[in-house]
Amino acid sequence: MKKQLGHNDRLDFLDMLRALAIFLVVIGHYKASFLPGGSIGVAIFFCLSGYLITNILLKEDAGFFNFIVRRFFRVYPPYFCICMFYLMLLYFFFPSDDFNNYLKALPGLIFFIKMPDKIIGIGVSVFWTLHIEFWFYMLIPFLVLPLKKNKKMLYSCIIFLILVSFVIKFTNLLGGMPFPESIMNTFRWMDNLLYGVVVALAAKDISVKPSQGAGSKVVFGLILTMLILSALFVPSKGNVWFLQASLASFLTAVLLFIYFKRRFDAGFYYPKVVLWVGLISYSLYLTHGIPMDWREHLNLQRGLLKSVFVFLSLVFLPVLLHYFVEKPSIRIGKILSQKVG
Q1: CA 302 from centroid of its chain's CA atoms
Q2: What is the pTM of this model?
Q3: Of the candidates 328, 331, 237, 175, which has an alpha carbon nearest to the alpha carbon of residue 37?
Q4: What DSSP designation does 181 have?
Q5: CA count, 13 A, side-chain hemisphere, 308
Q6: Is 84 part of any domain?
Q7: Nearest-CA neighbor of 10 among 46, 51, 43?
Q8: Which residues constitute the domain of residue 30?
Q9: Residues 307, 310, 316, 322: is their CA dihedral positive or negative?
Q10: CA distances from 77 to 265, 286, 308, 330 (A)
């Protein structure tokens, strides 16, 4: 007899999606020929963030300052550590021009104001998603908290913002109104996060009907397959990537909705290694580009040696960051938020 779905199972499912997302991102960056559209993992992360953040804000005791404190300590300390680590890395191992360019760009990075004008490396370029999410965290409470008891108005505002996001995308696609990698860039990607917001709102209203048949499983499997196939065959390049990411986020939202509506996978076994990858996915995302840049400047000529170096770095760096920075800072955030609350 299958067990009833509980709180831990929900987290397991979300960790599974996080693991899928970070797998797509890492493979897409390291082996684009194998997974040309692997960066749709970013779109999955965006949708999950929209869902999780809104779920927090919909709680009765949710407050703006309490929320900001917890988000700050959840996101910022690991990010700041990696920014400083990269500064040290550039100083000792990279050309002086790269170090100087990064040093000039550092204030914009630290305060989530602006990405560097010049590409310094994949280890830095992945930070753009953190800028999007940070400003989303800052803006979304002003939408959800005042309107969470007026769902119709809240849905109307969300639909409007999604339309604004698509207007920006298509305007950008046609060559007009270019948006820099800065605060305003959040609005171009806003729809990806808002799909998750919609699922969080809908999950509060829908009645759960555990599935006894195969229908929901088939639909769920087809949507998940569509996500993976799009990563395999649709390259994440140019302005079209914005549209591809929107579709991937929308499909992720549908997956979440079906999951919370039908609860058909009660008792499903999630491999522990997958859940662990999902657990450290944020730290892994922050660090995965560093060995990609580093290996090119250490005179690692042999392919096997490069592969071993990259593998060890991909495991060692995120584990250190997660257990020695991310987890303690999350704990501090919880304690401080309770005092603020």
Answers
A1: 34
A2: 0.90
A3: 237
A4: S
A5: 6
A6: yes
A7: 51
A8: 7-340
A9: negative
A10: 35, 11, 29, 9
Tokens of 13: 């499912």
Q: Which residues, at least 6 apart from 207, have a Cβ–Cβ distance to it below 8 Å?
A: none
267: in domain:
yes
What is the DSSP secondary-structure string of 290-305?
A: HHHHHGGGTT--SHHH
Residue 82 lies in a domain: yes
Return the pLDDT at 21. 95
Question: Which tokens is 166 given?
Answer: 């698509």
Strand partners, 182: 114
Residues 6+ apart with CB under 8 A from 275: 12, 15, 16, 19
pLDDT score at 282: 97
Range list of H helices, the chain: 7-30, 40-57, 64-93, 96-110, 122-125, 128-147, 151-173, 185-205, 215-233, 240-262, 272-279, 281-287, 290-294, 303-321, 327-340
CA 105 to each of CA 64, 78, 117, 125: distance values in angstroms, whole numbers, following the listed order: 30, 18, 8, 12
Half-sphere exposure of 313 (CA within 13 A, CB side): 19
Q: How far apart are CA 129 and CA 29, in angstroms?
A: 15
pLDDT of residue 292: 84
Give CA–CA dist 293/310, Å, rounded: 10
Question: Is 32 in a helix, a strand, or coil?
Answer: coil
Tokens 């910022």 belong to 76
d(CA 38, CA 22): 9
- In the chain, the number of structural domains is 1
Within-domain flag for 2: no
- Here the tokens at position 220 are 């769920």
Q: What is the block-wise mean pLDDT of the chain (341 residues), using blocks of 10 residues?
A: 40 88 92 85 95 90 86 95 93 86 94 87 91 93 92 95 90 63 80 96 72 64 82 75 89 88 64 92 95 72 70 89 97 86 60
- CB neighbours of 319 closer than 8 A, spacing ≥ 6? 280, 283
What pLDDT is stored for residue 172 in this prediction?
Answer: 72
